[in-house]
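Changelog entry

Holo records now carry the ligand SMILES as an explicit input line rather than a separate metadata file. Below, a converted record for zinc ion, shown in the new format.
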Amino acid sequence: MNPLLAATATELAAKIAAREVSAVEVAQAHLDRIAEVDEKVHAFLHVDTDGALAQARRVDDGEISGPLAGVPLALKDVIVTKGVPTTAGSRILQGWVPPYDATIVERMRAAGIVVLGKTNMDEFAMGSSTEHSAFGPSRNPWDLTRTPGGSGGGSSAAVASYQAPIGIGTDTGGSIRQPAAVTGTVGAKPTYGGVSRYGLIAFSSSLDQAGPCARTVLDAALLHEVIGGHDPRDSTSIAAAVPPVVAAARQADVSGMRIGVVTQFKGDGYQPGVLARFDESVAILEKLGATVEEVSCPHFDYALPAYYLIAPSEASSNLARYDAMRYGLRVGDDGVASAEEVMAATRDAGFGAEVKRRIILGTYALSAGYYDAYYGQAQKVRTLISRDFASAFERVDVLVSPTTPTTAFTLGERVDDPMAMYLADLCTIPSNLYGGPALSLPCGLSDDGLPVGLQVMAPVQADERMYRVAAAVEAALGSDKLLEKAPPL
Amino acid sequence: MTIATPPYDDVLDRYDPVLGLETHVELGTVTKLFCGCSTVFGAEPNTQVCPVCLGLPGSLPVTNGTAIDYTVRIGLALHCRIAEWCRFARKNYFYPDMPKNYQVSQYDEPLCIDGYLDVDVDGDEFRIEIERVHLEEDTGKSMHVGGSTGRIHGATHSLVDYNRAGIPLVEIVTKPIAGTGHRAAAVAKAYVTELRDLLRGLGVSDVRMEQGSLRCDVNVSLMPKGATAYGTRSETKNVNSLRSVERAVRYEVERQGARLDGGERVVQETRHFHEDSGTTSPGRSKEEAQDYRYFPEPDLVPLAPAPDWVAQLEASLPEPPSVARRRFATEHGFSDLELTQMTNAGVVDLVRETIAAGAAPGKARGWWLGYLVGRANDAGVEAASLAITPAQIARVGALEDDGTLTNKLARQVVEAVLAGEGEPDAVIEAHGWKVAGEDELVAAVDAAIAASPDIAAKVRDGNQGALGPLVGAVMKATGGSADAKRARELLLERLAGG
Ligand SMILES: [Zn+2]
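Structure line, unchanged by the conversion:
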């Protein structure tokens, strides 16, 4: 394998800045890698060869510099890109070419990042395996019969298979962290409002958050810093500077930190190998000078049902705009059918089963007479979960847990069993409901030889804490080298 | 002579009406409610749009602070309580002119709550209680093509213009208005008129009903006289002129009265108003009502108007129109009757502006009330919509006062301005209209006397009634531009002098 592919983003940017290698060469090496292996992995839905090379040339021409200038990136297809097709993994948006760039895309372009293309995902980010993509599933580079997780399985699979050193995912209930965990990569969900949502195709507005995917904690932090910060085009964006995540990733020191182990996230349903790696990680944190205590968050038990009321409710409204009138798919427009009939036919043909299931759930939960019992009740649970976090963070600096109860499952294993699929996000959902940041990093291999993720959760706007802890664990475990154990493609 | 009792009054002899008015006001902000697009009326379809107001995937709304400012001002002027904390909500329903298939509106947390507006109907004051004032985004506009009616039935296809989508719209909802008796229609019209003047005074909207920047939904129900339980109401949508508000109430009173008399029940439904016939026809039945699935808009943060900012706005409110009108009448010496006439004709502001532009109060009032209101009625528009400005009227008045124009010429000039020929001075120049000069007049007088010695002799003999043909001759000779009064004076002078 070309050594440019194995390099971290930090290393690539340094080589490009020192003119040891050109950004075009780096981009081309990754485009070649995509051409070589993506038939097997199916991480990408669209490769933007011309756009990538043009951006790389701008870096080589000295127009742009910076800590990630010239570094290639895999972009989840839920982020809109001007002039480049954007589908959100749905047939209903097939052929749509956005007329504008998401804020984070503008920021990445300005930072000299080279977007290679758009990556696969569960339709509208609804799923945990990419099997709900309208364009076929992505595959886990560790074992091509298994899923790379979801919804952002495409970006994580691309990063894990050396098709890109970094990627962008979006996380509504774990869609960055769970794929990171099962592919042996790093994925971070920033504090809600820490990264602009302008140009992120909404699944659930109050939960969605874009964040970095990478092979090292430092690379994730560097990307986090590029995309983060206040955006006047997003009313829910926090008007504050990005937390010092890069400095924290470099600091990589946990001495004196107080670590809380969430009582609720262990026991039945957790793979023994997952729990073993988790316990070892906790022991290492103690050895590195942190104090560890168990912290009970009793309302986390209700996070999953609350999430499956709030997210579908918002989705049922957010996805109403896909009606064939202005863009995207149009079905049944025979000159006789009414607008309502064309809308219905298009939505029937354009949305997959999981999306329809959630639209129906959400429509029901918001209906007159049911609102209080479902949506209203779920909001109360959300408040209680936030209180659990708040009281936990009075005692500890961060919380830790396994990222996901099991390692990667096989394709087809859970696709017809929604409840089993939903359980993959059991440990990740609470942070979305609370709005705080959370990160997953590899912490070894389970008994089945597949990667295990360690989740670090921090208070709202204290994103730097999770990078500090993660970088310390990474250094102690050498988990940035874990991917070298994956079988070659 | 006996006059048949009109059905309206006949119905209201037996039933008590209850009204409800929901008024939508397009705010006069430069940009839309949640994006930076222009709000200017009349642009080419779909030229004032962007990813946000088209609801493109990934776009997000950002609230226009001026729209909040304007809404709070309206609330304060209507004596409402301003919410200290409230949220926008999504109102979910599918319609092609709604880009997102939900409307960002306010539901159970309006910005302004519980106010009132006092209106004057022929000297009696009615207090109209306001339930709420809230802010929402307007929808686009559908045009149904290929049918005969312009409505969706029978059309072959529809076109949608999203220029209007996202324009800030304030909805002002009254509490039920009872106790108006026979004056229901007049009260409804007076309320909308007073509200329009108040909004104009606040400078928050151009309140042009014919362009749809002020639209009214009129709810009417009847209950047997003396009853306390309200009857079933109809909601007549998009009533777009003051006169139509009055007509819609009258029509609904008559229609519902006839149904109730016949033992039928009134159906709760929305109805369309037809400007041409003054009637209403059924639209969507409310009995198969939509469930809008309101929930708090997660893309926007809650609104929390700071109490001292609200207090500042309150302190800076202009005087209410009723107070301003009274002060105006006193200042310019108008009688109560004259003020009522001007108010009813909707020309108070026009007269005020004409005076401000330099016209004498009597002259300004005379032009608007005595001439232009008639012209507006002929054209079926409001006086304010006529193609002539108070400044132009003041200029014509000044030219009349200095003798440049006769009253007859002045009317010709006004007609020419109304016809779009330009400013008064340009019109006069173009037509060569002006009062004949003194020299020209003297020459014409002498010529007329010389041409008709017989008549001149009669006048010299003291028969002033014989002067008419001489005046006529002078007017003819000057092409009608002479001041007839002055011609008469000159003729008498010359004849007396011998
Ligand atoms: Zn716009």
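Spot-checked after migration. The interface with chain A takes residues 51, 54-63, 90, 92, 94, 96, 99-102, 157-158, 160, 291, 293-295, 298-301 of chain B (CB under 8 Å). The longest helix of chain B spans residues 242-261.
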